Backbone:
């Protein structure tokens, strides 16, 4: 009863506060607009959100009172008819609770999007389409999340309230929770990215600017509430503590969506009187005489109180004289100051549109947040001032004057559309200045902007690859030899070493084009063989490959951190930790990335050496294969190919990390240093993994740990050291960050190659989106690491090797020593048409499919070869045979 009473009190208190904040919003809007009939659609939507919030509070108390069908089967079998009916009713209310929660949360998002949509009318196309894109994303995710919850995750729907439950998913909502949380948080992040970049552009004191960002950044609290809700839901599903966070999540959303619009009412409640503070909210009991004005209650971010009365009259028009102007200092991306004088009638349209948008957006947040400096000008000059609420500006062609429309119903889109500077690029420059973020995307790095040659830079080539691949995901690859392919220690070791060397050669070859071209890998390959349209296919495959590796890193890192805690920490927490740190490094770019990789290998080498010392005595170096004949030969080839795939897969990103190296960097030196870094790192990790796998047979503790997770096996290897061993396990787990960071970094560049729209989006935004995707995928697939790894790595390895073969053939047989103009990668008239390359790529895939051997498909040739994975070898063979004649015909007919 104590829990029920506590939940009831807290939930209804939050509901009352929600009603108050919605009421304040509506009153503030009425004060602003003058009539209830002028309320906008988002005001009505907020009332609808309040209705859903009421449903959340009512249903959540019913769930706490009646329980649900989440119980052990033996308990459900012994329920009395009354208890069973109560559990069924509670389960139905749980279903209703989830619908109310989803609808309330996404309705608040819709309110903000309608507001952003109005405020961006008449501004740059990119701003308007940014809002529309987020709106489309929110609409799709709401429909998708709701539909999958009602009809997909638990089908038929009535299984949600069946007692006893037959499908555990219908009681835990597990998959739905993960999917809904990912969609909810990602859309919240997108909503934050709309207004905050605009705030950064305004020339204001830093304290004022930080305050504005705090107003717009209230959505962070909503994200935090959502994360805590899911954490308590997953960490202890038998407890109803998560119900507190259910109602808190929706309550925070209501507060975040309404508080910024409530300031006028709060100001009046604190003692501010009518037009003394803002004539837009008149109070006739106080005359306009400045002598009778009382002390004002100021908004913490506002200008001085005396300024407010000079800006607006009660209808939103300027009541100042013609010689009273205002100066609003802004910063343009091309000039240090867009304006440093009063806005006169001769102001340019681009300045007016930019000003109108910025003023309206900030006015929405806090109604009077601009730093406005009163200035005086000639009485003969017409001064343009802008009201502090909905901005209505009309620009007439040939007109010498600019006027603020007194009508609130006129559309701001009457401004002639002007392409304003990208606010995302401005944010990039600001963040670069404050945090050293790399703003360059896939544009070529010209020779004059490269770093000077040095021995330290050369050493960094090897250290980059050595550091990035001393990670647990590669250790998981080595386990396959003895555990999956039933090979002995010697067989596995030899195949792993030689597979690594051969796979590293392909990556080292592709890496040599980075310094010469100054282009990223996908861009350089475009100049060699592919048309721009075909490049999109390769880039998409590369994005999938790199995000897949980052996902595997998150999973195995989370497994180790969970195992270190003895299972007390949910694996989801470890996954989130790895994903967040990876995101931070990938967002800041090449500079911090190289610095991190320069030193990340040191603790990894130390703890892996410790692991060899503690687990080495249990390695079975005399282990023999448990299969014979053709099966043994097939398994040897499959494991060799798997060990080849992993270092080879870096070839799709190899040039990305060398674009800042001098143009005259020796290709041989780049090749050998890359080969060295890859070979030593993979060999060390593979051999440790093979030793652990052979030791499983005679070590019961290792077997039990491995049954829990692959990460548990790593922790078991450190067990003899007790506390220090757990510390070493944490270091090993965090080592996956060095591997996942270049994956996310390269994938973000691959997204920019996906057409001209992909290039417009800054790299740091792509890094953020891809980090979130990797996090969601890791959360969903955390129980099936080895299956994911075996199928994913092999499948992705096919296309990478096909690309390398085609590039190599073009280089050796058709280009030779011909010089390329690396800056013309987007010039279709200069690029090869790519017909021969694309046809060879497709034919190579046909060969790969015929020879592939995966859990979900076995090709006919592989089946005839005792299930050996021949996909890559057949694919490369097909491509090598068909590309030269096709390319020869292409050159003869098309001449390029």
Residues:
């Amino acid at each position: 009863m104590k829990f029920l009473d506590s939940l009831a009190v807290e939930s209804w208190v939050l509901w009352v506060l929600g009603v108050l904040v919605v009421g304040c919003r509506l009153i503030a809007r009425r004060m602003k607009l003058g009539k209830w009939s002028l309320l906008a659609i988002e005001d009505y939507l907020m009332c609808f959100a309040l209705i859903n919030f009421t449903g959340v509070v009512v249903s959540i108390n019913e769930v706490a009172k009646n329980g649900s069908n989440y119980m052990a089967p033996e308990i459900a079998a012994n329920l009395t008819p009354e208890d069973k009916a109560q559990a069924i009713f509670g389960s139905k209310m749980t279903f209703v609770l989830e619908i109310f929660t989803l609808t309330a949360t996404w309705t608040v998002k819709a309110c903000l999007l309608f507001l952003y949509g109005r405020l961006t009318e008449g501004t740059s196309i990119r701003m308007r389409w940014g809002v529309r894109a987020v709106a489309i994303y929110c609409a799709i995710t709401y429909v998708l999340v709701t539909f999958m919850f009602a009809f997909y995750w638990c089908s038929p729907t009535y299984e949600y309230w069946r007692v006893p439950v037959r499908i555990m998913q219908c009681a835990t909502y597990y998959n739905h929770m993960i999917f809904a949380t990912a969609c909810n948080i990602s859309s919240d992040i997108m909503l934050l990215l709309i207004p905050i970049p605009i705030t950064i552009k305004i020339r204001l004191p830093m304290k004022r600017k930080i305050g504005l960002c705090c107003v717009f950044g209230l959505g962070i609290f909503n994200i935090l509430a959502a994360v805590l809700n899911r954490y308590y839901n997953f960490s202890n599903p038998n407890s109803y503590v998560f119900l507190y966070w259910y109602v808190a999540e929706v309550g925070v959303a209501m507060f975040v969506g309404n508080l910024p619009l409530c300031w006028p009412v709060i100001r009046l409640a604190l003692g501010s009187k009518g037009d003394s503070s803002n004539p837009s909210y008149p109070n006739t009991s106080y005359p306009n005489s400045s002598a009778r004005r009382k002390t004002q209650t100021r908004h913490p971010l506002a200008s001085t109180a005396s300024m407010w009365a000079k800006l607006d009259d009660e209808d939103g028009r300027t009541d100042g004289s013609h010689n009273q102007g205002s100066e609003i200092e802004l910063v343009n991306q091309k000039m240090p100051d867009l304006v440093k004088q009063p806005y006169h009638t001769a102001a340019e349209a681009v300045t007016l549109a930019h000003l109108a948008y910025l003023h309206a957006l900030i006015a929405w947040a806090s109604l009077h947040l601009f730093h406005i400096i009163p200035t005086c000008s000639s009485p003969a000059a017409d001064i343009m001032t802008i009201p502090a609420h909905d901005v209505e500006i009309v620009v007439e062609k040939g007109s010498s004057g600019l006027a603020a429309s007194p009508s609130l119903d006129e559309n701001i889109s009457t401004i002639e559309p002007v392409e304003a500077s990208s606010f995302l690029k401005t944010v990039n420059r600001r963040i670069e200045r404050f945090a050293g973020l790399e703003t360059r995307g896939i544009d070529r790095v010209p020779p004059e902007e490269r770093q000077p040659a040095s021995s330290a830079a050369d050493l960094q080539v090897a250290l980059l690859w050595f550091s990035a691949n001393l990670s647990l995901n590669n250790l998981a690859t080595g386990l396959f030899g003895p555990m999956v392919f039933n090979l002995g220690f010697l067989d596995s070791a030899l195949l792993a070493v030689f597979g690594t060397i051969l796979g590293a050669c392909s990556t080292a070859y592709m890496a040599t084009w980075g310094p010469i071209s100054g282009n990223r890998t996908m861009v350089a390959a475009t100049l060699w063989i592919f048309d721009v349209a075909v490049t999109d296919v390769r880039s998409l495959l590369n994005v999938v490959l790199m995000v897949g590796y980052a996902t595997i890193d998150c999973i195995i890192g989370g497994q180790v951190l969970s195992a270190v805690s003895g299972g007390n920490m949910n694996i989801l927490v470890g996954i989130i930790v790895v994903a967040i740190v990876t995101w931070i490094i990938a967002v800041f770019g090449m500079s911090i990335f190289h610095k991190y990789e320069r030193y990340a290998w040191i603790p990894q080498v130390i703890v892996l050496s410790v692991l060899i010392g503690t687990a080495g005595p249990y390695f079975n170096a005399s282990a023999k294969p448990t299969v014979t004949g053709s099966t043994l030969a097939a398994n040897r080839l499959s494991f060799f190919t798997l060990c080849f795939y992993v270092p080879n897969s870096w070839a799709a990103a190899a040039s990305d990390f060398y674009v800042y190296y001098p143009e005259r960097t020796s290709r041989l030196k780049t090749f050998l240093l890359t080969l060295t870094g890859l070979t030593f790192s993979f060999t060390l990790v593979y051999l440790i993994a093979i030793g652990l796998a052979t030791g499983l047979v005679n070590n019961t503790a290792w077997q039990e740990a491995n049954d829990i997770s692959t990460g548990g096996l790593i922790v078991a290897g450190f067990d003899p050291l007790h506390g220090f061993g757990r510390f070493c396990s944490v270091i090993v787990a965090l080592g996956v960050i060095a591997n996942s960071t270049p994956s996310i970094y390269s994938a973000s560049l691959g997204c920019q190659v996906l057409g001209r729209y992909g290039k417009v989006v800054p790299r740091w935004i792509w890094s953020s989106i891809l980090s979130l995707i990797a996090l969601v995928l890791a959360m969903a697939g955390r129980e099936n690491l080895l299956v994911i790894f075996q199928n994913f790595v092999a499948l992705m390895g096919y296309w990478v090797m096909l690309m390398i073969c085609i590039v190599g053939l073009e280089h050796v047989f058709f280009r030779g020593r011909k010089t390329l103009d690396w800056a013309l990668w987007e010039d279709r008239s200069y690029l090869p048409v790519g017909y021969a390359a694309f046809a060879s790529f497709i034919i190579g895939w046909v060969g790969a499919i015929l020879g592939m051997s995966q859990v979900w498909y076995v090709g006919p040739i592989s089946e005839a070869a005792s299930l050996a994975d021949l996909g890559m070898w057949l694919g490369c063979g097909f491509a090598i045979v068909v590309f030269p004649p096709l390319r020869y015909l292409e050159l003869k007919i098309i001449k390029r």
Notes: The first strand starts at residue 324 and ends at 327.
